[in-house]
Batch of 2 targets.
Target 1
Amino acid sequence: MRRKNKLSWPGKILLFFNVLAIAGLMLVYAGTRISPQFFWPAALPGLFYPFLLLINIGFVLLWIIRQRLYFFLSLIAILAGYNHINSFMSYSDTERQLPSEGINIHVLSYNVRVFDLYNYGPQWELNYTNRNNIFRYLESGDFDIICLQEFVHNKSGAFKTLDTLPHLLNARYAHTGFTRSSRNINFFGLATFSAFPIANKGMITFPTRGGNLCIYTDIIIENDTVRVYNVHFESIGLSPEDYLFVENMTNVEQISDRDYFRQGSMRILNGLVNAYRQRAIQVEMVAEHITQCPYPVILAGDFNDTPHSYAYRKINQLLNDSFKSGRTTGQTYIWDLPGFRIDYIMHSKHFKPYNFKTGSQKYSDHFPVSVWLNYIDKSFIR
């Protein structure tokens, strides 16, 4: 690498923006360690990690082309957060053969968005299309443990879910937890289905504005007890108006309308801040519960947060992320903005993951995620 003594003014400007990009990465790393309860702005840079990573990779290439040693600046910053790359993109062989020893457990997590209950027909009749699509997908997957978020049970029987799924699935044992209802007919919450008998059921009740919840289910696998946590952490709660605002950010006329831009931005920012603070409380409650658990643990659910967040790191300190056994960038939230992985399956060291997959089914606003977990060491104590 040829060394040059002085930078031109354009070079100095590039170096300035390079330093800003590096600072952005450092803020992402710091934000995972700072609870949004105490300082919520630290959580925001994590949303932009994919873009900051690409920008810094661009600066590495740029300085190499210009034969400048400044490429080490971004390179060191990227390598300092290698674990973030590993949770954003996974490179494992997706076709690894499952081991013949131990017990192989097929686990699914899926936010089903109430099975599209409110997608009424022209005469306000119920629409069963996406519900039936989800049913067929669950049935065909032959899953042993299924964790569903934004589950709905219709007490009247007009929109069957809980009263039908156990008859369709290999995972016929059910545990549900509901936090809200509509006219005492539709009940909303979480559902865990298991092919293994259920020995105990419990609930972690969150402080929440959106009816979020965690349920845990103790299942019996060959005389051993395994605890399955099904979680749905606080969401931003974007309204149709908010989604329209985000879409309009490509519209020059809309952006130039200062009042429209200010009101939309503040509305989304307030939603983000409230959600970050609530999630921090909720994830700490679940993390504390896990530390007291005497059994092997599987945790699945919708975190409503990226792998570059305080919520993710708090759980990942206790449990391993099965995502790293697949080969994918893992976007699980279906939105115009790419790259948001907010659905997870994690596990304690009793298990070894194989063939993590993100589904392509568009029956909800989330993609399903699944993995095979091999129960490798029943005598291991965490």
Target 2
Amino acid sequence: MSAGERSLAGWGRQPRTVGSVSEPTTLAVARESIAPAHGGSLIPRGLGRAYGDSACNDHGRVVVCERLDRFRSFDPRTGLLEAEAGTSLDAIIRTFLPRGWFLPTTPGTRQVTLGGAVAADVHGKNHHHRGSFGGFVDVIELCLADGSVVRCSRDQHPDLFFATLGGMGLTGLILAVTFRLVPVPSAWVNVDYRRTRDLEHTLATFAEHDARYEHSVAWIDCMARGRRLGRSIAMHGSEAAASDLPVPWRGRPWDLSVRRAHTFPFTPPCSLLSPTTVRIFNELFYHSHGSGRRVVDIHSYFYPLDGIHHWNRMYGPSGFIQYQAFFPRESSHAGLRRLLGEIVRSGAASFLAVLKSCGPADGALLSYLEPGHTLALDIPYARGTIDDLCHRLDRILLDHGGRLYLAKDAMMGPTTFRAMYPRLPEFLTVKRRYDPNHLFSSSQSRRLGIE
């Protein structure tokens, strides 16, 4: 590597790239990074929690925006917050949850920037009710390829607004975001746990209970086979009232003690998550979670893995890929059955497997979700073996009208991508309009043929 270059990867640590990294501390300096004199392509990057190579630019420039983290304004009457794009969801929670405000929807980690949340149009456990993050965004302030700054919304430059939502940083450098927080009665969630015996029972549980709860998610046992295929622990939750809380917290419902996070201290020589260890964990987890209601704090319900810093090291030097598959409602049962069957036959050990219900799309040109179900799988990477497995899984998705999530993708090919995202031509038209020379480019965008 030359001076100024760094090794970069996504959270899955696969694939690895080399990029020339800059870390602006002000918006003015960030805008200067767009100047043509710098040469080459660039891609913005936040806290690096995209799993694949969407925030990498092999042998190109990477603008890390995490230090652009200032709050600009907040309206306590409406919950409208304007903040710079490098502001983390964690900082927003720490600042506004004690005042009774929370994120309208949230991914499974707090360590995501606002710019990343917009670029990936993140979603959470309440998608079936609230949709994706983009549905709560009012204004995106964007630095374009020519150095100009525009504020786009549903009324101003709507083409650019809906291309930037879910556009993986390919339309410009996001400088600031204005979006709406939502009031919550406490920092706790009433969660009803239901153990299901197989995939049919899991989907029937979703169908029966989703409408009554704000949040819907299931841990699914990807090692179970035969009649137990798709057995799960369904976890339906809604925000808890102060009267529901443990006695010590009723007088301070939005106050959460800061929990001490543990750190996974090193990268072992091989993945610790073998089929045997995952099978043992899954048996213990399944049988230790019986049906019943518990009141849990938001960190435990929404962000369980944030309690272990660098948990991705557990997968060893080869890293892992996250395969997040979406199936539309009419084909989700058949598609999930085939997908899970293929995972079981392959012997791939998915330690983390999460199934969620999905609601309407939000108008983004590269929108990922619509009514149906999405399944996220963490799979230890082994060159060749996992590549072949992912191609087989892609085929199942295509056969059932499904698609992969770009923020998790590390291996999809251009033909598959075009088939899964039918509005790609519209996106490319907008990109050519605002970035005719393809200044904004990533390892992923070149792999997928987005340019």
